[in-house]
Write a structure and sequence with these properties.
Radius of gyration: 22 Å
CATH superfamily of the largest domain: GntR ligand-binding domain-like
CATH class of the largest domain: Mainly Alpha
Number of domains: 2
Largest sheet: 2 strands, antiparallel
Strand content: under 5%
Helix content: over 70%
Length: about 240
C-alpha cells in the first residue's frame, strides 16, 4: 500500500514556492512566450521531483494571479501579460508572506464596509432571503451553544454575494478559512459577545433590506468594533 505523505501548511507553501521558482526558470530557459503551452503536470512533477498534486495546486495558485491559464482537454498556457510583467509578478508571489491575524482583520473590515454598501444597493429578494436564512442559523447556533463562528461568516459571505462584486466575493471566500481558524485559536468572541452580536446582525440585515447603504455601513462598523479593539485596542 502506498504511503500517503502528510505535509504541514508551512511545508506545502515551501514546496509551492520551489515549484514557482522552477517554473520561472523553465519559462526563461525555454524562452516561452505568452500563449505558449507548459509541459503536462506529470512531466513537471517528474522534472521538479514533487507530487502531481503539488504541481496542480501551484498551477491553480498562478491561475488565480492571472499568470497561467488552464484549458480543459488542452493543457496549461502562459497568460497574455507580457514576459517582463509575468517575471515581476512571479518574483512578487515568491516574496509573499502568510498574512497574520491582524492583516486578515484589516482586510476583512475594508472588504465588508464596501460589500455591505453594495449589498444594500444591489440585493435581490433572493439575496435577502439568503442573508435572512444565515442570520436565523446564526441565532439558533448561539442560543444552542453560545458560539457560532462558522455561521457568523456564512452570514457575511451571504452579504458579499449580494454585493454582486465577484472579486470582493472571491477575496472573502479566500480569507474565510483562515479567519475561522484564528477566531477559534485566539478565542476572539466569547458567548456574551455572540449574544450581543445577534442584534448587530439584525441591524445590518434590516439596513440591507431597507436598501440604506450608509446605515448598513454604520451598522457594520459597530459590529466590527469589538474585533478591531481586540487587535488594536482602538475604535474604528
Amino acid at each position: 500500500m502506498r504511503k500517503v505523505e502528510l505535509l504541514t501548511k508551512g511545508e506545502n507553501q515551501d514546496i509551492q514556492k520551489s515549484i514557482i521558482s522552477s517554473l520561472k526558470e523553465l519559462i526563461e530557459y525555454k524562452n516561452l512566450e505568452p500563449g505558449d503551452k507548459l509541459p503536462s503536470e506529470r512531466m513537471l512533477s517528474e522534472k521538479f521531483g514533487v507530487s502531481r498534486s503539488s504541481v496542480r495546486e501551484t498551477i491553480q495558485k498562478l491561475e488565480f494571479f492571472g499568470i497561467l491559464k488552464s484549458k480543459p482537454q488542452s493543457g496549461t498556457f502562459i497568460a497574455d501579460i507580457g514576459r517582463i510583467a509575468m517575471s515581476g509578478m512571479m518574483d512578487d508571489i515568491l516574496r509573499l508572506e502568510t498574512p497574520d491575524f491582524k492583516s486578515l482583520v484589516e482586510t476583512r473590515i475594508l472588504l465588508e464596509l464596501k460589500t455591505v454598501r453594495l449589498a444594500a444597493l444591489r440585493r435581490t429578494e433572493e439575496d435577502l432571503n439568503n442573508i435572512k436564512e444565515a442570520l436565523e442559523a446564526y441565532k439558533a447556533k448561539v442560543h444552542n451553544t453560545g458560539k457560532a463562528v462558522e455561521e457568523d461568516l456564512l452570514f457575511h459571505l451571504a452579504i458579499a454575494k449580494a454585493s454582486k462584486n465577484s472579486s470582493m466575493n472571491t477575496f472573502m471566500l479566500i480569507i474565510s478559512p483562515e479567519i475561522i481558524t484564528n477566531f477559534e485559536k485566539y478565542h476572539v468572541c466569547d458567548a456574551n459577545q455572540s449574544f450581543l452580536s445577534i442584534q448587530e446582525h439584525e441591524d445590518i440585515y434590516l439596513a440591507i433590506k431597507n436598501q440604506d447603504p450608509q446605515l448598513a455601513k454604520e451598522k457594520m462598523k459597530v459590529h466590527f468594533n469589538i474585533l478591531y479593539q481586540y487587535c488594536y485596542n482602538t475604535k474604528i
